Amino acid sequence: MDQYVDFSQPSLYIAAGAVVFNPTFWNTVARLEYRNKTLTKLAGGNALYGCYGLAATIFSLGIIRDAFYERALRDQPSHPALESFLSQSLAVVLVACGNILVLTSMWALGVTGTYLGDYFGILMDEIVTGFPFNVTGSPMYYGSTMSFLGTALWYGKPAGVLLTALVFTVYQIALSFEDPFTAEIYAKRDREQKAKGRKGQ
């Protein structure tokens, strides 16, 4: 294993740290916002501006994480099996499909839907069920994971495959927290709307 993954490289651990940090950060900050309106207060009481600020932060952190990931790959040994035509072709398909999932989900959700606007009280009228959400319930997470794996295969780096496994694991953990919490936000809205409807009768 050591001949294919150089565990002595600090860049490997920096990339792994960034992979773990990002979803931990946005989930922690979003929950603080939901409970205490922290970012809304910092934005002068404007929830939309607070959400935009979080969106810019998450986007920037994603760029930094990706830069750390690519730097880590450059410092790692390659494996001949990952440099074959088949592997390179699969890499292209994975990156292309991954980007399609990410970009189309962002288009369908908009900025506030993509960047945790529901934690700010900015809720969508209806759950998005069209493409890419009819393919997977979490197209951004799975699309991002596919892009990580595709990049690892493109550069022929086993360490990239290992980091992709970490990405997948971290995203699964994040989803186990995010999905129930988000579902409860919308369930609460539905309960409140029904209660108002009964009062109005």
UniProtKB/TrEMBL annotation:
Listed InterPro entries: PEMT/MFAP, Phopholipid_MeTrfase
Subcellular location per the Swiss-Prot or TrEMBL entry: Endoplasmic reticulum membrane; Mitochondrion membrane
Pathway terms, separated by semicolons: Phospholipid metabolism; phosphatidylcholine biosynthesis; Lipid metabolism
Single annotated GO MF: phosphatidyl-N-methylethanolamine N-methyltransferase activity
Record keywords: Endoplasmic reticulum, Lipid biosynthesis, Lipid metabolism, Membrane, Methyltransferase, Mitochondrion, Phospholipid biosynthesis, Phospholipid metabolism, S-adenosyl-L-methionine, Transferase, Transmembrane, Transmembrane helix
Gene Ontology terms: cellular component: endoplasmic reticulum membrane; mitochondrial membrane
Segments dipping into the membrane without crossing: 10-30
UniProt: S-adenosyl-L-methionine binding residues: 96-98, 178-179
EC number: 2.1.1.71
Catalysed transformations (reactions): a 1,2-diacyl-sn-glycero-3-phospho-N-methylethanolamine + S-adenosyl-L-methionine = a 1,2-diacyl-sn-glycero-3-phospho-N,N-dimethylethanolamine + S-adenosyl-L-homocysteine + H(+); a 1,2-diacyl-sn-glycero-3-phospho-N,N-dimethylethanolamine + S-adenosyl-L-methionine = a 1,2-diacyl-sn-glycero-3-phosphocholine + S-adenosyl-L-homocysteine + H(+)
All ranges on the Lumenal side of the membrane: 1-9, 31-42, 113-155
Record-linked PROSITE patterns: SAM_PEMT_PEM2
Membrane protein topology class: Multi-pass membrane protein
Cytoplasmic topological segments: 65-91, 177-201
Pfam families given in the database record: PEMT
Biological processes, Gene Ontology terms: methylation; phosphatidylcholine biosynthetic process
Transmembrane regions: 12-30, 42-65, 85-109, 155-175
Family under the similarity heading: Belongs to the class VI-like SAM-binding methyltransferase superfamily. PEMT/PEM2 methyltransferase family.
Function: Catalyzes the second two steps of the methylation pathway of phosphatidylcholine biosynthesis, the SAM-dependent methylation of phosphatidylmonomethylethanolamine (PMME) to phosphatidyldimethylethanolamine (PDME) and of PDME to phosphatidylcholine (PC).
Protein name: Phosphatidyl-N-methylethanolamine N-methyltransferase
Organism the protein comes from: Hortaea werneckii EXF-2000
Lineage: Eukaryota, Fungi, Dikarya, Ascomycota, Pezizomycotina
